[in-house]
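User:
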Amino acid sequence: MKIAAYTNSMDGSGARRVFFEFVKHLAQNGHTVDLYHLSGTPIQKFPFAEYVKEIYSYPMAQFRDLSFKPYIVSLAADLFRKVFYLRQLKRVSQQMCKDINSRGYDLMFSDVCNLLRAPYQLRFVKIPSIFYLHHPKREAYEPLHLIVSNFSCEGQPPLIRLYKKLSAALYQADNVLVGHVSKTNAQAASLVLTNSYYTREYIYKVYGVFAKVIYPGIDISRFHPLNLPRKNYVMSVGGIEETKGFKDIVLGLSLIPSDKRPSLVIVAGRRQPRIYNELLSLAKEKEVKLSVFESITDEELIRLYNEALAVVFMPLMEPLGLVPLESMACGTPVIGVKEGGVRESIIDGETGILIDRDAQALADAVIRLMESPELHERFSKNGIKYVREQWNWDKAFVKFDACIEKLSEKNSALASALRP
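Assistant: Predicted structure:
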């Protein structure tokens, strides 16, 4: 088959690696794949050029939020700018799809849009399309005060509460606009794939679309045990932002007696300055030693996984989270919050520990692993086996290929029915 692959995402996260691995598989499986992207997308974070035949770039800068005071004015300006930006993005997407439609492709495989999640391309291509969606835009559908602490009014005087409510209304209007466009785009896809049953239910609730779950794989040739001595730190991975739960980890560790207390290592691909500064202040106040690593190599990440006492994963309603799986592949037990897709990746009492979002529960779980080498070893061995058997790319590719074949057969049958 001849396949057009589209991406417009800004990061080098695990979610982007999933798109790359599927593109790589398509090329290695004998399909001809061309990559389409917007010029502001840093596709060099993954070696697409080694696997695709052609790369087509369309001039379009990424949308950048303004940040000036008063904040409410910058929010209003962003909403105004976004309306015009979406018009331009739509025009560029239509031109891209006009080219895709004219070049004889059999299928389009789409990653997310950095701004919309579901891209305009799904609406404008005239060929079957498969869209892998890790999560809709959460800010359009969830309580803002839980996702963006700036909008919390608790304990604030009346004028500040009014200011925050007005700011939240503007922020919400911005995200509802984006969410509406994204929903329309997602509904135009021939097939939506996603990463967990939790996310499948979420997509149905907000988009009215039934997605098919294909769990991503873990590259066990990269993430594997190195048999290194364990060090007295727990580790977490993710962007330093409101929903990643790093403050919860600090609070939990602070309840462990100081003579036993492990330090905290965070590997961050990105950070929000305000959240980062608040995290540093909290760690200092609670006497939790904190180290943050940014822009490290895969080799350094794997070494940190292997040397950690445990990995703690506490994000708010995470769609799935590849971090626990990478950790288990390295033989490091995981303590995860009993929310979202994390419940699908950790088997409580077998490959790790699932806990409620509670500081004392986290402290108790860390102490259990510290004081029981037998439990630590059992989780380690079970985790390695579990990831190798259940979370490998071969299983994901078999399901992915079946989706392509079924979609192709359906399209052929429809074309035959329409012939005179």
